[in-house]
Amino acid sequence: MLNIYGQNMRPHKALDAIINATSAYEVKTLKKWQKISTKECEYIHIILEGNVEFRRESDELCVFSLRGHCIFGIASIYHKATHMYGLVRDKTVVRSIRKEEFLELITQQHLWPELSEVMAWYICLMSKRDDLLVARSAYSVVREFLLEINELIVNQQRDINVYDYIQEYTNLARSTIIKILSDLKKGRYIVVEKGRLLNITTLPERY
């Protein structure tokens, strides 16, 4: 339930304060599939609207995705953090600011408490991800993602291929995902047609 967890935990007031303080900087619109890179570690990227997936450079694994306000590149303020990039999934508006200017602005505007709240939000997201994925059975992972997919379909009218979605966020082999979903279909716990989740009942805790 990582994406929904991230949306629910979002520190709106802190993000709004930082966004308002950076309003003098120009914005640019990115199209679907464009990348937001951290390779040069020179910029902080403030996402004003849109949907961005945050992926590992090493294997393209999607760590989490966020829709709406967020800040990308905070780690590069103090470290050369180049292991992640953002992948735009629909039209996205972003404001990119040199990190030295961003730091100066945060200090002048006394926004360190707000920035700390945003950083704490990311720590919570990564801790939740570990809770969902680390030392868990393949079935437990698939179960969590099925529940998230269902909630995204119901609440955000998302069009999601369950096989692709689960594989993008985990290191599970596609054959493992197919086997688990096939068994759940046989048990009439889910209805999946052409990769789309059409119905879900109470999923068993154990496989």
From TrEMBL:
A Pfam family reported for this protein in Swiss-Prot or TrEMBL: HTH_46
SUPFAM superfamilies: cAMP-binding domain-like
Organism superkingdom: Bacteria
Domain IprA winged helix-turn-helix positions: 138-204
Protein name: Helix-turn-helix domain-containing protein
Lineage of producing organism: Bacteria, Pseudomonadati, Pseudomonadota, Gammaproteobacteria, Enterobacterales
